[in-house]
Write a structure and sequence with these properties.
By secondary structure, the chain is mainly alpha-helical. It has helices at residues 2-24, 32-57, 61-76, 81-98.
């Protein structure tokens, strides 16, 4: 029974998070500051969640750094996301084997 309560609460929270902006901002936002803030906010939140996870996922700081550097280099050269992710994981794994 408590599982259904958890699901109902999460459904309500998710609905409110998606509904509130539509009710508060009925007209187009004209402020350049607010528009740029709303444009970059998803990237900032995603980075704030991903960067700590990268460094704690492997359990070793060295393997995390190697994987991150490989991912950044491949992303800089516009490689597909799957190539970046697999190469970073492989680099971290191989570094862990060597260490």
């Amino acid at each position: 029974m408590s599982l259904l309560i958890y699901i109902a609460v999460m459904a309500g929270v998710t609905y409110l998070i998606r509904m509130v902006p539509f009710t508060l901002f009925r007209r187009q936002i004209k402020s350049r500051f607010v528009r740029s803030l709303l444009y970059y906010l998803p990237y900032a939140v995603l980075s704030a969640m991903t960067i700590p996870a990268i460094f704690y996922a492997t359990g070793d700081f060295t393997t995390a750094i190697v994987g991150t550097v490989v991912a950044l280099v491949l992303a800089y050269f516009n490689q597909p996301l799957i190539v970046v992710a697999l190469a970073a994981a492989l680099a971290a794994f191989l570094t862990g084997l060597v260490l």
